[in-house]
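It would be a great kindness if you could assist me with a short task in structural biology. The matter concerns a single protein, recorded as an amino acid sequence and a row of backbone structure tokens. Kindly check, if you would, that the fold set down in the tokens agrees with what the sequence suggests. Thank you for your consideration; the sequence and its tokens are set out here:
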Amino acid sequence: MNKYQEMMKRKNEIMLSSIGIDFDKYEVGAISFDYEKYMEDVGYTLEEIREIQIEVGVGNTPLIELKNIANLARRVSKTGKAARIFIKDESCNKAGSFKDRRAALAVYDAMKKGYKGVVSATSGNYGASVASQASTRGLKCIVVNECYDSRKVGQPEILEKGRKCEGYGAEVLRLTVGPELFYTFLKVLEETGYYNASLYSSFAVAGIETLGYEIAEQCREQLGKLPDAVVITNAGGGNATGTARGLIKAGASEVKLIGTSIDLSGLHMASDRDFNRKSFTTGHTGFGVPFMVNPDRSDVPRSAARPLRYLDRYVSITQGEVFWMTELLAQLEGLERGPAGNTSLAAAFALAQEYDDDQIIIVQETEYTGAGKHPIAQLNFAKENGIEVYVGDPKEQVPGKNIVIPAHPSQVSVVDFDLKGIKSSYIKNIVGQLGDKTLERVDIEYLKEELKASREEVLELLKPYDITISKNY
């Protein structure tokens, strides 16, 4: 048995000691686990989390109306109407993104439990947030950073974020794409005894609940009503999950949740060839879809990021449309923000045209920008890697081959994912793990919650498979 296999055998043991969670206690059926108990055991109320965040310069970010962008949407709308568009400006957090909310709670918990340091595996923004919070709390920080292809060529955005982590005092371990990331992550946790500040732990997702809560709170105070929809960039699912849970806690459960990812279909995220052929390191389908159909593929045994529980709709947008929106935001609204954070804004521009003028769409986050994250740096890097960049119709875009900047605002559109198809893929993955076990009542109830579906819908999704369902159900 090689070192990698040996390390994988000890994965759960390492996770238990590095985050203080016994994941086995939540296993309650053939496939189910007690998700709400898992989240409840975070042990901090939403008000306590807000206080923890405010103490270290996180949260209470402004809600800003984009009047000029909404007016442009009305000019190109087929109906002449479009919703008001607001952004929750998360770039105002200490390290420049909503991920500060995740890191603030995780690092606080590490400090409270007596850990000497924290470890994060990340392509960048979350690592910067963890490093920033660790420096504030007086803890050591190690960031395991997947940033190079086999030629040791790194994307300007990832390299910049790595330098930002170092600027906060973190030790950054820069790796090439592939399975060594998770192996190195586990090895560092085991050797240091540091806290696992995972993106996907219950602590990290609970930290984002304040964001959803603030959106509802600010809309009531500033606008006198709740928004009609909140548009959320979806990658690993924690962003959507935490925001949705916060909205629910604020009594805003009727607000529509729309997830958005950049269409990078056809590019394999673990492929050395494809690694530098994508211009966005997060917020794309290469994370969004796989983490939806198998949330527990993450770096904790049970991921707290479960977006299918909450999303009402899931759409994609192209790279070119996001770059276009980044320029538009700067030139029409005087706000220069990082391209990846504008994924949901690009989608919101198209989605707003489905609504009336007096309706409200909230774009749930922005992120900081910088030299490596700037569109010019990213587009130049794309060209260096053989990607054709031109102005035209975004529908011509082929991920990994070209980036098409819209020639006209009317060309910006979204493509809907078939959520039923994604739920079917989730079921297929679950059935593959089931073996000869019988599905009990608790499993069916779990799937209803997990898939935001009725009992009949769950049973319909299970029909194609030769599995046993208890007669007691």
User: Anything to note?
Assistant: The chain has a mean pLDDT of 93.
